[in-house]
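Work Package 4 report. The design task specified in the project plan requires that, given a folded chain encoded as structure tokens, an amino acid be chosen for each position. We show below one input record used in the internal validation round.
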């Protein structure tokens, strides 16, 4: 049985963490499978949107402490962090679809996505402090970038659970829906994005990454000087819109 299952059609690829009996905890072996899928998606121009989700009642309960205790190791020292980096660097839009637990390593994983849609059962938490560990997968960079430094400190220093409605208020989640509606709402969001020009999405994503850390004036100037302009599908899309009008 695969630890990460890939499905999808119509330009949307869905990656499902597939250890529901372990609340999809992140073992080194799972990361190896995830990395293979991410690397394949990076080169697949037919895919416009990537959805990351978990099987069962939880997205991910965090790192697999049993695997750590049993001596399991990833192929290289920073393999997990580099896999999340690769997820964040995908040219496609990446949606994390979260229900239930999204703890520590799971939180670091979803922070590599572009958008987070959450069930009203979702719980976000950083437990590094509980186990006397320090993040190495990007938490201290990506969580403050997502919700601000003060709010990130509150989450990280206390280890408290942030429920779905608060996650929405913090800007951690982009949308919150009823648990029974999560899969359909995720599919609808993915469809809306997939209908946009992949040229635009890919360039906007890479430009935002390049501009991150610049001031507004510098970033605006960089965009003006480096923007890719009209894409190869622009004329066709404009003509189609004009005909409908």
């Amino acid at each position: 049985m695969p630890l990460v299952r890939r499905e999808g059609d119509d330009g949307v690829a869905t990656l499902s963490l597939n250890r529901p009996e372990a609340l999809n905890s992140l073992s080194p072996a799972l990361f190896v499978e995830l990395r293979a899928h991410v690397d394949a998606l990076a080169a697949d121009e037919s895919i416009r949107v990537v959805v990351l989700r978990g099987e069962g009642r939880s997205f991910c309960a965090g790192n697999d402490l049993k695997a750590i205790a049993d001596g399991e190791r990833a192929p290289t020292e920073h393999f997990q962090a580099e896999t999340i980096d690769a997820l964040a660097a995908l040219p496609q839009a990446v949606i994390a679809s979260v229900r239930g637990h999204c703890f520590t390593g799971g939180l670091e994983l979803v922070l590599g996505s572009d958008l987070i849609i959450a069930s009203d059962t979702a719980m976000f938490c950083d437990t590094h402090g509980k186990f006397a560990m320090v993040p190495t997968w990007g938490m201290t960079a990506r969580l403050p970038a997502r919700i601000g430094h003060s709010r990130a400190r509150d989450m990280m220093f206390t280890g408290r659970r942030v429920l779905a409605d608060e996650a929405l208020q913090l800007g951690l989640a982009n949308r919150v829906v009823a648990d029974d509606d999560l899969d359909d709402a995720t599919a609808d969001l993915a469809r809306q994005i997939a209908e946009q020009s992949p040229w635009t999405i890919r360039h906007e994503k890479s430009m935002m990454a390049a501009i991150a850390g610049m001031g507004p004036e510098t970033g605006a100037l960089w965009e003006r000087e480096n923007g890719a302009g009209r894409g190869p599908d622009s004329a066709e899309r404009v003509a189609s819109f004009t005909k409908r009008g």
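The chain has a mean pLDDT of 94. Validation will be extended to a larger panel in the next phase.
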